[in-house]
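Progress report, Aim 2. The chain analyzed during this reporting quarter is listed below.
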Amino acid sequence: MSLARRLGLLDPPGQPPDRRRAVVLHGDVASIERAWPEADALLRERPDFRLILAVPSGDVDAVRRRFSHELVVEAPTGGRLAGWLWRRRWRVAKFLDAAAPEVVRQQWGRELGSLAAVADGGEIRRPIILARLFGMPEIGSVEALRARLGSPDTIVCLGNGPTSESPELSVYRDATLFRVNWTWRARGIMTDPDAVFTADPDLPPKGSKAVLVFPKSEGGRIVLRQHFLAGRRASKGFLMLDRLEPVIADFYAQEIPTNGALMIAVAAALQPRSLVVAGMDLYRHPEGRYPGAEAVDGYARGHSAGCDLALIESALAGFKGDAKILSPNLRAALGR
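Predicted structure tokens for the chain:
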């Protein structure tokens, strides 16, 4: 785990950074577990706010495993939490004590007024320009991506659900492989992707041949900055989907597609002869959110099954090749 992510300077895997005002829920692992459902329900009603879970050092890993889609930070001791968060430029609206979940809704109150997100402006451009100087070319179109990948015949799209480890995938080991984030690396199954759709700050392994695909420029620039700090470059190039031509999705809507849905949309736009999808289990597989993980099920705030399915249906409607979906939940939702 990168130091920047442990300290909460970067957002969770798959989540683009944002500048909404934050509600900080702080406590130990047990109190966070009790209070999170209420805080989550409140924030689903108020998408103009985000949630930060601030926990003691020894609880960071456990809370991050459980709430993998939240921003979990290591809180300092000695009552210095407010100043510490301010130095990280989070716009904190309210601190909630997770040890008292019954008062979370009462503490919410009327004071949490709606605030517009802060535009990122020219800060996006600097890391992108540096990336090009360091031999990390930006890919700006579907045609350019197709050429970079060698006009693939078969593309396998793997989300991170349990069906990403389906035995049926063994016959596709020579196909062009798309994956989401980097949470699958320790599992040792299909670990040499050609493209990774991510907002995860974790760096690719040395020698990775993957094109890095970021949903939004503001998230991509932060990850690229991590590359500079680590002396690691994505030599195969990177792609910012909010700058891609033609447009894949609306990245400024109240809900945006997950990286998994975006991955399928891009793969379909490349028009390979064959498209194989697995691991897209809509966060409701009987075995859990991820293979061997204890994370809570369900879509993170800002995403939904409806939003994902609308994009996937549209992408597959325009796909001219053979599409094979190995995720029963997704197949049933699409009526295939």
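The mean pLDDT is 78. The first helix runs from residue 3 to 6. These observations will guide the mutagenesis work planned for the next reporting period.
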